[in-house]
Known about the structure:
By secondary structure, chain A is mainly α. In chain A, 85% of the residues lie in helices and 0% in strands.
Amino acid sequence: MIALLRRDLALAIRAGGGFGLGLAFFLIVTVLVPFGVGADTALLGRIAPGILWVGSLLACLLSLDRILALDWEDGSLDLLATAPLPMEGVVSIKAFAHWITTGLPLVAAAPMLGVLLNLPGPGYVWLFVSLALGTPALSVIGTFGAALTVGLKRGGLLMSLLVLPLYVPTLIFGAEVARRGAEGSAVQTPLLMLAGISFGVTALLPFASAAVLRINLR
Amino acid sequence: MSLVIDNLSVARGGIPVLDGVSFALRAGRALVVRGPNGAGKTTLLRTVAGLQPPAQGVIAGDEDTIAYAGHADGLKTMLSVSENLTFWAQVFGTADIEPAVHAFDLVPLRDRLAGTLSAGQKRRLGLARLMVTGRPIWVLDEPTVSLDAASVALFAQAVRRHLEDGGSALMATHIDLGLAEADVLDITPFRAAPRAAASDEAFL
Amino acid sequence: MSLWEYANPVKFIRATDRVLPWISILAISSLTIGLVWGFFFTPDDFRQGSTVKIIYLHVPAALMAINAWLMMLVASLIWIVRRHHVSALAARAAAPVGAAMTVIGLATGAIWGQPMWGTWWAWDPRLTSFLILFLFYLGYIALWQAIEDDDTAADLTSILCLVGSVFALLSRYAVNFWNQGLHQGASVMRAGALAGDTQERVSNVFFLPLMVCIVGFVLLFVALVFLRTQTEIRARRTRALIAREHAS
Lengths: 218, 204, 248
């Protein structure tokens, strides 16, 4: 399992793109927002938590199809299925590798992009915390979407259609934590809900992803 | 370490392709599956390897004894030859990739990225993966595609050594490997009579 | 005779053929009666005026939008557990009907909301939940259409339906938490509502025609799902026959 994680990380680093593209996309989205809504710093500060959450969600979505599609094309997935690893473990590791290469850089970069959007002072900590807690859920849910569409030729667009509605609860609670944090009000309830979603999907969704993947490999 | 197939039916995309296949693969034996294109060799091997459920029949054998190699080698082009092998060695819980590297003459290539190899070299690397799995039953689908005569000889030698060590091999291939001791199973007589997919039967 | 016998496609078609005309007639007549009664023979609400009459479309459609998804969930479970093809096809057949009901619910809601709240659309929890439900329907339908092999598609969409149901429920609570909203509470079925005062309850004058409309929508849904399932079964049968022709 650790070997699989190490391999996926090595591939992501060597293929370039892995870290870079998602981050660059996140940066561009953040830069585009003021062009769209105007340069009013008060307004930007108010919408910053939400924009940063939506931005990181989209950046996450961008790289989802690489989680399984590459292994599907070169036949590794068949070989992994016959290897002594449970499929549930394989999809969990894949999701984890995706989080390290995509989610983690987004979490680290978000506070810096918060500066661009004039995020209010107390918001930085909570933005960081909410993203750190919420992005694993995005990776795990995304892996489920990737597993559903892995055999399809034009799976990318369909996968977005399937995954985005599933992202709604995570986004709502995550952005709520960041927003309340920025306003300086109590964050406990949404924070607990966000943590609940993250732990819940990480524990349960790999079973669905593995089942779906087995059906697709058939 | 034997594999017993009894009255197996396999289906491709729901359509039955083979019926009533029975054979046994004993330790130290090799079995070559022959048949024209589309006869169902790949489907049979995938079913035996556990990648798809049999439509009917029994595949009796110990769990986790099969190493499968299909048409695609499952190589990562951005990893070197030895990294590719080491990964599979770790996945299968074995340590030593050296015998495999030597057996398939990959020593001079070990630090090259798999993406820069020729088709035949990639195939050799794909086959070397079988040795690092440490599993006794090899299930090979067209193992000699894009190999030259010398590489085929290397491969035959590796198989022979595997058999001597008490392993066994099930191969689908068209060419003569020079493995005189291998049994041959022609699957043409087992071809399924044309009929509807099992899942369609309820609708007819 | 067990209920599962109707899981046989031929039996299903034969049985539904027999009841389909009756259900259709009942659906059309109860819808006609309910809508005419509701639109022309009930008084205007003293606060909402005649706009209140849109409930005869809005409430039943919204109810069926949710019930259609529940029906798909049950059908998906039956497919996963017992692998009856009719069940999978019924789930497939119900999805567009449910999606249409969701759109009707949303559209009538917007039309009603304009005079009442002064806006076509508000990010109210109920409205938002229905929009999310609509997205789930879209994804489900798209996945069915994208996969060629029928059984694989049935397997994958069933799992999507299960997972989607959990997430739809989660979204419902998340959205509730996110914004409190304008929409009135569920006043039709609330316990004690029938005995309450005019402000909170839906009075009998409105309630009876509404019930007739709801019955009409349920029957309409059943009729459409039966019809569409028959179509799916026949399409599947056609493909099977063609495949057999090619095979021999």
